[in-house]
Amino acid sequence: MSETRRGLVIVNTGPGKGKTTAAMGTALRAVGNGLRVLMLQFLKGSWHYGELDAVAAFGDKFVMKQMGRGFVKVGGAETDPEDVKLVEAAWAEAEQAILSGEWDLIILDEINYAISYKMLGAEKVADVLKRKPEQVHVILTGRNAHPSIVEIADTVTEMREVKHAYQKGIMAQRGIEY
Ligand code: ATP
Ligand code: MG
C-alpha cells in the first residue's frame, strides 16, 4: 500500500450504538498521528459529556464544540426555528472549516439527524463534500444518513442494533453514554 494521503468521507450511521464514539476513536488515532481534528456536534449542547473535558487536554490539536442546545423537538411544524438557526450556524462553521483546509479531520457529529429532520439540506452538504480540499478527512455521524451523502462517501458503516441496555430499563451510564 502506498503512503499517498487521500482525504476520506466516512459515514457512521444505523440504529445501533457506536456512531459518535467510533468517530471519537478515529479522532484519537488521528491526533496520535499528528493530524489536527475538529469535531462539531450539531445537536448537542447543555448536557455535559465527558469527552469535552478529555479533549480539552489536547489543546488546539483536537477541538470539540457543541453547537446545539441539547434537546431538539422535531418533525414538521414541531421543529423549533431556534434549533434550525443553530443548525444553520453549525453548518456555516463546518463549511468554512472544511474548505479552509486548516483541519486534517473534521467530524460532523449528528449531522445526519439534522439532515433527516430537514433542518439542513443534504444537497448543501454534498456540494461542500465534493469541493473539499483533497487531503481533508470528514466523518458524518447519525442515523438515517441521506442517500446522496452515502453515494459520495468512501466508507459507510451501518451500526446494527443487536440489543441495547436501555431496552432492559437500564438508564444511560456516565462514562459510557455521556
Ligand atoms: P454513542 O455516542 O454511544 O456512540 P451513537 O452516536 O451511536 O452512540 P446516537 O444515535 O447519537 O448514538 O444516540 C445518542 C445516545 O443514545 C447515546 O447516549 C447512545 O449511547 C444512546 N443510544 C445509541 N444507540 C441506542 C439504542 N439502540 N438504544 C438506546 N439508546 C441508544
Ligand atoms: Mg451519536
Please give a quick description of this structure.
By secondary structure, this protein is an alpha/beta fold. It is 35% helix and 16% strand. It contains six helices and six strands.
Keywords:
178 residues; alpha/beta; Rossmann fold; 6-stranded parallel beta sheet; 6 helices; 6 strands; binds adenosine-5'-triphosphate; binds magnesium ion; corrinoid adenosyltransferase; ATP binding
Task: Give the helix/strand layout.
Elements: E1 9-13, H1 19-32, E2 37-41, H2 50-56, E3 62-66, H3 81-100, E4 105-109, H4 111-116, H5 122-131, E5 137-141, H6 147-152, E6 155-158
The structure holds adenosine-5'-triphosphate and magnesium ion.
Adenosine-5'-triphosphate is lined by residues 15-21, 110, 141, 143, 159, 161, 164, 166, 172, 177-178.
EC number: 2.5.1.17
GO molecular function, one term: corrinoid adenosyltransferase activity
Pathway: Cofactor biosynthesis; adenosylcobalamin biosynthesis; adenosylcobalamin from cob(II)yrinate a,c-diamide: step 2/7
Describe the structure.
It is an enzyme of class 2 (transferase). InterPro entries: CblAdoTrfase_CobA (IPR003724), P-loop_NTPase (IPR027417). Keywords: Transferase. Belongs to the Cob(I)alamin adenosyltransferase family. The chain is of the alpha/beta class. It has one domain: P-loop containing nucleotide triphosphate hydrolases (Rossmann fold). Helix content is about 35%, strand content about 15%. The chain contains six helices and six strands, in the order βαβαβαβααβαβ. It has a six-stranded parallel β-sheet with strand order 3-2-4-5-1-6, sandwiched between helices. Helix 3 runs parallel beside helix 5. The longest helix has 20 residues. The termini are far apart. The model has no long low-confidence stretch (mean pLDDT about 95). Bound molecules: adenosine-5'-triphosphate and magnesium ion. Magnesium ion (MG) binds next to helix 1.
